[in-house]
């Protein structure tokens, strides 16, 4: 049995410490508009840089099976959705569509972490529903380490719609890097007639 360590800083004896919780706290002016290298054609909003406790928690969920860290990460997304609804940038009814995860990665991780984050984040929000409607096609490479152009080539045409989605949609992801996945997700959803109003991410690189 492994000793309990904070998923953000590694301090012993606690799964998520108060200092890391403060680092993840959504400020009154967040999320912020960011500009990825590949423009998906809709606003891209992020809760912070992909660094520090935020980065370590995301990696721990995806690569180390730290399901306990879904709670603070989903809590941050929940607050971000609250803020956007309060500001009038989002409106209900609204469908939250998780960005797709490669099937091999989802199997390795015991499920799709982005979908689990989205489902927890909408709890208590009336008028918000989650539709895991996007899927990566088989043999899509992992994009880690690829350049912006290579990411775009890797993902182009590799996302497919599994369930029709109508009305207003926000795409939710853990990290926006070059914007390739966000752009292709938005394109696929718009092709089916969805009104994609924004992309919302826990972090941006």
UniProtKB/TrEMBL annotation:
The protein's enzyme class: transferase
User: Recorded E.C. number(s)?
Assistant: 2.4.2.10
From what superkingdom does this record's organism come? Bacteria
Task: Tell me if Glycosyltransferase is a UniProt keyword of this record.
Answer: yes
User: Which Gene Ontology terms cover its molecular function?
Assistant: orotate phosphoribosyltransferase activity
* Annotated InterPro entries: ComF/GntX_DNA_util-trans, PRTase-like
Parts of the chain that traverse the membrane: none
Protein's name in the database:
Orotate phosphoribosyltransferase
Identify the coding gene: pyrE_1
């Amino acid at each position: 049995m492994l000793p309990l360590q904070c998923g953000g800083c590694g301090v012993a004896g606690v799964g998520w410490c108060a200092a890391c919780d403060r680092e993840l706290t959504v400020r009154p002016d967040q999320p912020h508009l960011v500009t990825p290298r590949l423009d998906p054609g809709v606003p891209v909003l992020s809760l912070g840089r992909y660094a520090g406790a935020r980065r370590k928690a995301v990696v721990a969920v995806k690569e180390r099976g730290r399901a306990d860290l879904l709670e603070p990460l989903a809590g941050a997304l929940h607050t971000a959705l609250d803020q956007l609804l309060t500001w009038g940038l989002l409106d209900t009814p609204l469908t939250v569509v998780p960005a797709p995860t490669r099937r091999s990665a989802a199997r390795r991780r015991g499920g799709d972490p982005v979908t689990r984050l989205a489902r927890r984040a909408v709890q208590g929000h009336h008028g918000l529903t989650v539709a895991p409607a996007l899927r990566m096609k088989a043999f899509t490479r992992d994009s880690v380490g690829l350049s912006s152009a290579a990411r775009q080539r890797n993902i182009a045409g590799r996302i497919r719609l599994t369930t029709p989605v109508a009305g207003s949609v926000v795409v939710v992801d853990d990290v926006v890097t070059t914007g390739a996945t966000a752009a292709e997700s938005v394109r696929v959803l718009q092709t089916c007639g969805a009104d994609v109003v924004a992309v919302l991410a826990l972090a941006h690189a």
